[in-house]
Each structure stands twice: as structure tokens, then as C-alpha cells.
Amino acid sequence: MIPSALPPEPATWRTLDPRLCRAASRWAAWQGVHRFFGAVSRLGDGWFWYGLIAVLALAGGGRGIRAALQMLATGFIAWLLYRALKRRTRRPRPFRAHPEVVARALALDEYSFPSGHTLHAISFTIVAAGWFPFLALPLAVFTLLVAVSRVVLGLHYPSDVLAGLAIGTVLGGVSLWSGSILATALP
Length: 187
Description:
By secondary structure, the protein is mostly helical. It is 74% helix and 0% strand. α2 (31-59) runs antiparallel to α6 and α3 crosses α7 (158-185). The longest helix has 29 residues, at 31-59.
């Protein structure tokens, strides 16, 4: 049997993840795509979230201060979680493992799994929207753009982003739940 006559390998996460990274890297070669997602990613480095926390604390009254404090606490726990997971899994970033994938932004740390940007974005979105529901849609859109930016810029596999979304969703939900329990327990 000739090698070209073999049926194509079925798409599994092991094969699909790198394929999607290569496709995203080709798409990011367009300067407008690269610039747009580069700007989104830089904002997702923390600047957008720190600004939101400050605005909530300064303009949101007592509710805004409580929301800002809960976001800070959630962010700290998210940081501890993703750092521990990265050190444990030590998954190389796509641009290090696949020469066709180009890093179009600086990586903030060495390893890929999970996406800390995505984990923080979704957990912050859940907490902020829990306190101020009118923020839900714009924050969800921004979070989605942050998640996509991580793959487009060659810094994460789609599975890293999905893991960040899952962990951040659980963390944000637990944060809101525990915050509501504390609120009812305090005078």
C-alpha cells in the first residue's frame, strides 16, 4: 500500500490542536488580524481588568467596592491555580513545538496549559456581571476575543483556552456563590 493511499488520520485533540494553531498562525500573518488580536491580548494582560476593578471601586459605591474586592480575590486565586497547573503540566507553547506556528506576541511565561489570560478573563467576567449584570454582554465579547487572541497569536492551543474557560467558569461561579454566602452571614 502506498503511503498516500492511506486514509487520513481521524481528527483527535492531539492532531486537531496543532492543526488549528497552524491555521490561526496563517490567518494572523495578515497585519490587521495580528494588530487587532495583539491589542486585545495586551489589554487582557491585566490592563483592562485593573481598569475595570478601579472604575467599579471608584464609581460603583459600596457595591462597586465589594465587586472590586471580590474580583481581586478571585484573580489572586486564578493566578495561584494557573501557575500551579503550568508548573505541573509543563506543556510547551505551540510556537515552540511547531515551527509553522509563529509567536506574534511575547509569552508572559514558559508554558502553555492552561491559558491564564482566558482563565482570568472568564472568572472576572462572571464576578463583575454577577454584581453588575449590564456588564455581562460587553465583558463576554471581550473575554471571547481574549480567548481567540491566545490561539491566533501562537501562544496557546485551543485546548489550553478551553481549559482556561472551564477552570475560570468554575472559579467565577464558586466566587459568586461563596460571596453570596458571606453576604448573608455578615450583618
